[in-house]
Structure formats: C-alpha cells, structure tokens
Amino acid sequence: MTVRALYARIQNVAPGFLGAIFCTAALLATTSCDKKGGTADWGNPASASQNAAATVAPAPVSDPQEETKAAPREPAAAAKAKTATEGLRFMTYNVRNWLTMDRYVDGKNLKSAPKPESEKKAVVEILSRHAPDVVGLCEIGEASDLAEIQADLKRAGLDLPHLHFTGGADPTRHLGILSRFPITSTAKPAESEYQLDGQTFAINRGILDATIAARGKSYRFVGVHLKSKRDSEQGDQEAIRLHEARLLRRHLDSILKADAAARIVLYGDFNDTRATPAIKAVTGNYNDPAYMTAIPAKDSNNEAWTHYWALNDIYSRIDFVMVSAALKPDVDFRAAKIIDDKEWIDASDHRSILAIFK
Questions:
Q1: Cα(290)–Cα(271) distance, integer angstroms
Q2: Which residues contact 81 (CB under 8 A, 6 or more apart)?
Q3: Which strands form 293-294's sheet, in the order they lie side by side?
Q4: C-alpha radius of gyration, the chain, whole number
Q5: Gap between the Cα atoms of 249 and 243, Å rounded
Q6: What pLDDT digit, counting tens, does each position of 118-177 carry?
Q7: I need a labelling partner for 345 at 20 to 30 A (CA). Which of 4, 16, 89, 269 fits?
Q8: Residue 88, SS3?
C-alpha cells in the first residue's frame, strides 16, 4: 500500500474512532459526578432548624508527608471478622439530629418529632456493617438518645456496652461515645469559655474526653462538634468557631503537658476545612511535637468529602480523625476510609470516617 493510500484510509477511519473515544469519556465523566442528597434546603424555614452547616471552602489537600493511597473497599463480613485480631477500629459520625425537635419531613411540619425511623435504620446499618470497636457521635439529643443508638446497634449484632455522654452550652445537641472496651476515665476541659465583643460565651457542644483501654493499650478520645457555618446571635460564626478551636487546642496542650506520650484520638465535626484558621489552630505547627496529624481518608471513588450541603451543592471535608505523635506509628493509614455505603444519604448529611489502629 502506498503512503498516499494509507493516509486516505486513516482519514476515513479516524473520525469514527475518535468519536467513540469522546462518547466513552463523556459517559465516564457523567457517572463520576452523579452525587446527590445531603443537608436539607436551608432556604426552607421549616427545615432550617434541623441542619448543621457546611463549609464553602474547596477540598483540602493533605500534607505530602501524610498522603497515602486509598485502600480497596473492605467487605462488611471481613470487617466483622477482623475485630477480634486488630488493635482498634474507630468510627466518627455526625448522625444528623438524633434527637427530638421540630422537623420538616415528607412535606410536613412536625412538632417535637424524633429522627425518622428510616434515618435511624440507615445509621445503624452502616455502623453495624463496619463493626467498629469505638464510635464517636455528634448531634445526639439526650442521654436516652445515645442509649437508644446503643440498644439498636446491639440488636443489629454490634455490642458496645460502654458509653459516655457530654455537652456544652447548647441544650439541644450533644456528644456521645460508645465502646466495646471499658472507659477507664473521663475528663472536662479546664477552660470552656471565651470573650467575644465584650461578652462571655461557652463552647456550644463542649469537648468529650474519654480514655479507653483496649487490648493492652490506652487511647484518649477527644471529640468535638465546632460551631457551624450558620449565622449566630452570639456574633460572627467564623470568630466563634476559631475561639472554640483555640479552647480545644488548650485542652490538648494540657493533656500533652501532663503526658507527652499521650495516645490521643481527636475526632468529630470541625465545620471547617484543612487550610482554615480554625483547623490550623487545632493541629498546631507541623514540626511541633504536639502537632495533631489528620489521617487522610478516601471513599471507594477516591474522593475525600465527608459532608454535602444540598442548598449550595457543596461537597467538603469537614469531619476529621487526628492523632498525637505517640499514636501515629500505630495508625494503619492505608486502611482508613470514608464510608460511602448506599445508605449514607438516608442516614445523615455526613459520611462516617473509619480509622484503624494496629
């Protein structure tokens, strides 16, 4: 075949071939962007009271020293089977208003209504499937609500008999922790108030501090739910969150001052992304011995967002699990993951994070 004939043949075939490539690429792009659900529309007055805020900041970039490749998704049966041999499986989860409140459900305004049963069921299915040894929870109502989750999980096959419940100035939303292993001690921060515009305020959801003994090792769990992005009568929401973050950092410093080898697991809904002043205030300086390392985590699609704000169609990572220097060597970085089970959208506007310690 002559060069001229070969060139003519390529011209005839190339358009169809390139078109097939383009169509395939377009189909893949559409599939990868098919996200849905999340926080209800804050523009609807009936639903505004039931939602925590999300951030508008872009997705964070992990420190190069901390970045790891996402691990393959683990089958649920394997997760339960491994609990007897692993050091510790931990999940942090904002379960979105597991409490009694006025709600907007299925087009109806409901007064003093509990979290819908379908949402509760989804939360329990996700947690029981991944079989954590310890679960740190945000947006719990009363102590009875935490006990309800505990009982529901036990019926689903996940027995976490030990619990701790605490809160702050917010009378509605609290923090809770459930554990397979004994809680050996709890603590409260020495400082819980701050000054803003000449007024004194207390941290809204408090700071949960519980030490757990598991398989010969001690873990000090510190849980938080910092101020949301929603406006507040107290003042600027960003300033409030920064003050709360500073109080949290002081509590961490007090722990590490008393015991530099403390194995701290800091977790919760921080309502801000990695590059913000609030998160930097919490983590501290990278080269500082008291630096808190945020464990990188991805979902099965290699994405890192943990919260979806439906009103503004924003996906962001505002939930974290961080560890102190003494615990960092025990972190199984490759096993950390953001749980993207199909029920996540029915359960909450947040997705849970799983961290595994060796």
A1: 22
A2: none
A3: 183-186, 207-214, 217-225, 264-269, 319-323, 293-294
A4: 23
A5: 10
A6: 999 999 999 999 999 999 999 999 999 999 999 999 999 999 999 999 999 999 999 999
A7: 89
A8: strand
